[in-house]
Amino acid sequence: MGAYLIRRIFGMLLVLLVVSFIVYLIFIVIPGGDPAERIAGKVATPGNVAAIRHKLGLDKSFIVQWFDLVKALFTAKLVSYSNQTNVVSQIRQGLPATFSLAIGAAIIWFGFGVLVGTISAVTAGRLSDRAITGLALIGISLPVAWLGLLLRYFLAGEGGGVSWFPDGQYVSLTQNPAQWFYHLILPWFTLAVLFIGFYGRVLRSNILDTINEDFVRTAKAKGLSTRRILVKHVLRASLIPIVTLFGLDFASVLGGGAIITETVYNLHGVGWYAAQSIQSEDLPPLMGVTLFGAMFIVVFSLLVDIFYAYLDPRIRLS
Amino acid sequence: MATTSQEEFTLDTAAELAAEEGGAQIQGKSPWVLAGRRLRRNYVALTFLGVFFLIVICCLLAPLYVSQVSHVGQNDVRTGATIVEHGKKVNVISQGGTKIVNGVPKIVFGGVPIGPQWGAAGGKYILGADELGRDIATRLLYGGRNSLFIGVTASAICTTLAVILALLSGYFGGIVDWIISRFFDLIWAFPVVLLGIALGTALSVNGFHHFGINISGSNLAIPIAVISFVFIPYIGRPLRGQVLALRNREFVEAATAQGAGSIRIMFSELLPNIASSVLVLFTLIVANCILTEVGLSFLGAGVHLPNPSWGTMIQEGSNKLSTAPGLSLFPGIAIALTVLSLNVFGDGLRDALDPRAKIRIEHG
Fold it and tell me: How far apart are CA B132 and CA B226, in angstroms?
């Protein structure tokens, strides 16, 4: 276990290094042209451009620039091209909103996903199963941006219906817990709908596969109650693949992947911060957020593997 | 189709098919023909396939709609235009001021576009106008052309690349497999939408000017390239697994013994065996590519204005919800219907061809 962990952590650092190189390629190499000229603006003198080029280290070699980028990120010195704000501190400011959104939505989508998938599998072929299967298909077909706007229009007083809910914005948890909850209800459900549909579908087919396994027949033969078989045997085995999905989806949302939901509801989180810099073509914030998101996925995939071995002792970590 | 829960995940056998089709001759038919017969009896899937083709045909007929019905082009700005509605002249964009309604003066806000006219204005502004007086219905059709074109082309490119990589990886194994698998892992390590906007923004700053290829920043090729790239591992990974399992089967050994080369084994022996999964994955990935295009364009990293796409239309309407809700709501309905029809048909196709194929993708 110890050796496994050390090897995995070492591998993880290697992956992050390569990920940072890819981010460097995407943002510095692909755009082409001269970044210094772009930053200097349209009325810059050649001297200005040269000064900027030197200041940002753009006159250095390829490898040195990449190294500088990684260093700037880890020492929190990466600044935005357009308004010179510090990228790392901006990301840090976005964390409360992003984490609130991610954790709340994850609880909703995991809970409802499991509930819906189980009901659907247990009543397979009947009306409730058909209804759930149909709704799940609709859930995974809705564009998130549109769903968010639809809820705002009909439920948040944007003109088309009632105003039961506040129209976006984030209220800090420490400032006012009740308002924090109230403001996040719509964003949570907007983000959760797609995942509920997807998890419900996956769990339904997992349960239907598991029901035919030998150990379930054995449990039945022992005379265990249906409820006990379902919860302790079938559900436990069926949930294992869901854990992988959940770990990676949760990581992606924590790392700013819920960018559309954050933008629709004007929640000033990490994803929102990235979205703001798209219009101004301000690359360092995007660079920072992309790396930040990838970091979460890489770390969580290790956690998922460890948790997986705990859930299913047949799996050996090697 | 089998209806009980126990049978649901097994394919109808040839004998069952024959029995249900009045004893029609089934022996000696290829698996594709059998799958076609299964699909033929899945009326829900076929209906939704029809819906999808209906949407595609409507979007393709957009120029006809402009010349025959709406008489307003996709990018025609008509801020000062008036239309005749029930014999009265109405401004497309309200002028502002006061208006007497039942003897009571009422303030009218300026700059509010006209809502859906349905048939009242003789085919003009059927779904209303946006704040520049552009016809929403016209833009919806042209936007659909862009969104569908990006979705289908990106899926085709993505699937082709993923199939080639999966075949190389599974067939050669060893170092080739290691490199390709690590490549999949790397793309997988980024949240889809973040990687999409990162690439989309970086590419649209100056366009793409490397390796002798020159593409401008607003070209549709950029969202197509970005979307096809981010989805490669989602198709490549499951297919690689299948190729790996087929690699050591007898028919591959037999082909090798006959002196078949690597290319021949990969494309004439292995590819036909994964073709049904490829078809299912392709259908489902089209749906996901369309959703991704919508997400990227909504965030400003996909199709660039003034070109309409369903995503840019939702974005344009997002801050005019209270005055012009149709601007966002109608394209959303079109997207949901398109994606739903592809998902339902994809499910039906999978039931008919390959009940084990699974695909998952996230959108934030």
Answer: 30
**pLDDT tens readout for residues B136-177:** 788 888 888 889 999 999 999 999 999 999 989 888 888 888
Q: What is the pLDDT of residues B243-281, one digit of tens each?
A: 888 888 888 888 888 887 888 888 888 888 888 888 888
Is the pTM value of this prediction over 0.90?
A: no
Contacts of B188 in chain A (CB under 8 A): 297
Task: Check residue B158 and give its pLDDT.
Answer: 93
Instruction: Residue A286: count other Cβ atoms within 10 Å of its Cβ.
Output: 29
Cα angle A195-A308-A191, degrees, rounded to a multiple of 5: 15
Query: Of A85, A122, A146, A117, nearest to A241 (Cα)?
Result: A117
Is A162 in the B-facing interface, judged by CB distances under 8 Å? no
Q: Judged by CB atoms within 8 Å, which residues 204-243 of B form the interface with A?
A: 204-210
| Res B4 pLDDT > 60 | no
CA distances for A276 relative to A144, B299, B360, angstroms: 18, 9, 28
Which residues share a beta bridge with B101? B104
The interface predicted TM-score of the complex, written ipTM, equals 0.83
Render pLDDT for B46-63 as a digit per residue (tens, 0 to 9).
Answer: 888 888 899 888 888 877
Of B199, B291, B315, nearest to A26 by CB-CB distance is B199
Task: Flag whether residue A140 sits within 8 Å of chain B, measured between CB atoms.
Answer: yes
* Range list of β-strands (E), chain A: none
Within 195-224 of A, beta carbons closer than 8 Å to B belong to 195, 198, 202, 205, 208-209, 211-212
As a whole number, the mean pLDDT across chain B is: 77
Question: Which of B9, B186, B299 has its CB closest to that of A278?
Answer: B299
